[in-house]
Design brief:
The protein is mainly alpha-helical. Helix content is about 80%, strand content about 0%.
Length: about 220
Amino acid sequence: MTALVLGTPWGEVPDLLLPALGETALMVGIVMAIVVALGLPLGLLIFNTSPGGLAPNRTVNASISWIANLGRSLPFLVLMAAIIPFTRFVVGTTIGIQAAIIPMSLAGIAFFARLVENAVREIPPELLDVGLATGGSRWQIVRSIQLVEALPALAAALTLNVIAMIEYSAIAGAIGAGGLGYLAVNYGYQQFDDNIMISCIVLLVVLVQVIQFTGDRVVRVLSH
């Protein structure tokens, strides 16, 4: 009589876990590059077109704020399903890492833009007044005052956004995007593999803790 093996042997778990971790890191890395490249200027634009910004413009501010709010209004799973036609148009598929990058980026850009706006809003208005009084251009004030003074808050925002993208990558894994979420659902849940499920949970917890600890250290250094 053959013994029933419940779960992947612990010695074989790394062979499944490490490639999944690499896929998660790839997804989050690509998405965060897009998020920072687009979310940072979008957040600065939202703030600087507001009444307290460098170039107040109610129409522009209302338009881009509405776009940012739209991206944050839908739960990620709903957003991912709602833009399937757009995802297929952009990358030619609705499964895999490429397909996951599109909804993750849209959600991440909107989230990061609002975090950037809040970070810049915390800068004392007197500093902006000094920059204007000394004849600095708008770009000089953005670069030398807004970005520099908001660095600690921006580092905290970046940390929060990376953790959110790890969460989104796990959700995207449920639809075949790969990564730790795919491994946990398809092996841990559907095949009742407790060893894989426990390993995925522990690795995700450790990963988030390391990122949060690193981000907190960076914030403290920048604050000094």
